[in-house]
Amino acid sequence: MRTRPFLLAAGLLTSTLALTAPPAFAAGPAAPYDFNGDGYRDLAIGAPGATVGGKTKAGAVTVVYGGSTGPSAAKYKLLTQDTTGVPDSAESGDGFGMAVASADLNKDGYADLVVGTPGEDRNGDTDDGMIQVVWGGSSGLSGSLTLSGGGADTDRLGQALAIGDFDDNDKIDVAMGGKGAVDLVILQGPYTKAGGADGGLRAASMANAPKPFDPAYGVEYLSAGDINGEGFDSLVVHGRKKGTDDALTAVADTRVLDFLGWMEYVPGGYVSAVGDVTKDGRADLLIGNHREPSADPSGALGGKVTLVLGAPESQWVNARSLATITQDSSGVPGAAESGDGFGSGVAIGDFTGDGYGDLAVGTPYETIGAAEDTGTVTLLRGMSVGWLSTGAVSLSQSTAGVPGTAETGDRFGARVVLSDTTKDGKADLTAAAPAENAGDGALWWLKSATTSTARSYGPTTFGISTAGTPAFGTTLRG
């Protein structure tokens, strides 16, 4: 077992923000993505390529509210930087919605939405990046607060986001990824609508880690969860190995002052999801790597996912159980073929209602018939020792009951989410095809991950222009 120093004060380019103390609230904190406090999970869909007010690639985020029959096209909120109450204005190349995350930041009983805008120019710095909070409330999302890197030397800050209690003080923190000299910033809670983060700021360069990240790519993806089962969240950081474009993934315990020197390196991948697959009270980690081994030593023929089981911290160094899953694994539909992209999208959620977290894996470059790169989603059951090799299902636009037609270049399954949008105790599957209709993008929702009531939505349903390539569904959380 390792012994490590614990964080006693903010460090690594710390900047304490002098703000008023947060008010007390009678309501308990809401679950993430429940923006109106009704108990239903809502969906947040990013279209960072959307044209807004004639400005190309300004970006947009649609929030579709959940309900007893699932997300409703009649009950949504479209957000851009031209939305009343959202600071700043839409500009070409901003990429508003490139990343999103959610938590009840001010603990008022309504989840809040955090949006990354990595192409935002700030203080004369091109593509400095910006993060904005849109506050939840009884009527849904309204009002906003701008967060920044506190003067740290960042580029494209907000291209990755994750939220959790990263310093074990029962307060919510926001982790932001970018590029450049400083590519990881953590704003420490508590948060208030009037001022933002009241706990300080920590910033670091992943290029200084024992296995350094390449600053040209920076921190490309973040996820978070309690994989040690100790009541606080670890931060999962994705980037590229310095001097290469090979995937590099690290798990950080940011309670530690010099957390860079104490990180755990797990199998490399480009995306991840965190959830309790084995029903043991600890979160597990699902890492997706869509690349071929000829392009990335961490990859596999047709792509792969790695399930990393949570374990007590005393076992942290060598005792995490791993399972590698490809389309050649026993019980997985299909066959591993070069360029399939299995693992481009990953999600964990209990769609059977048995308490075990199930898996969804997107394969957006799968060929169906003569249609290349049309895409599939594979559903795998969770169990006490990981995943169940029987009962797996593959879904696509050629599956009976799934709306649409499998067409070349759709990339169905590029992003997937498993979340309970109907409050029935079972996770529903939402899958995105950001290249549908020549880059317009589209979304599919399947109750309890079945096809019985499947429906789909395009960007125009929610008032997003199809000028250019909005790529609706590039970002998907819920």
Question: What does this 3D model show about the protein?
Answer:
Pfam families: FG-GAP. One of its GO terms (molecular function) is hydrolase activity. This is Integrin-like protein. Residues 1-26 form the signal peptide. Keywords: Glycoprotein, Hydrolase, Repeat, Signal. The chain is an all-beta fold and 478 residues long. The chain folds into 3 domains: 29-147, no CATH class; 152-198 and 205-266, no CATH class; 286-461, Methylamine Dehydrogenase, Chain H (7 Propeller), CATH 2.130.10.130. It has 1 helix and 30 strands. The protein has one helix at 436-439, and strands at residues 43-47, 60-64, 76-79, 99-103, 112-117, 130-134, 144-147, 155-164, 173-179, 184-188, 191-192, 196-197, 201-204, 221-225, 234-240, 247-252, 264-266, 271-275, 284-289, 304-308, 322-325, 345-349, 358-363, 376-383, 386-395, 415-419, 428-433, 442-446, 455-457, 475-477. The strands form 8 sheets. The protein has a 4-stranded antiparallel β-sheet with strand order 3-2-1-30, with no helix packed on it. Strands 4-5-6-7 form a 4-stranded antiparallel β-sheet, with no helix packed on it. It is globular and about 50 Å long. Mean pLDDT is 90; it is low at 1-26.
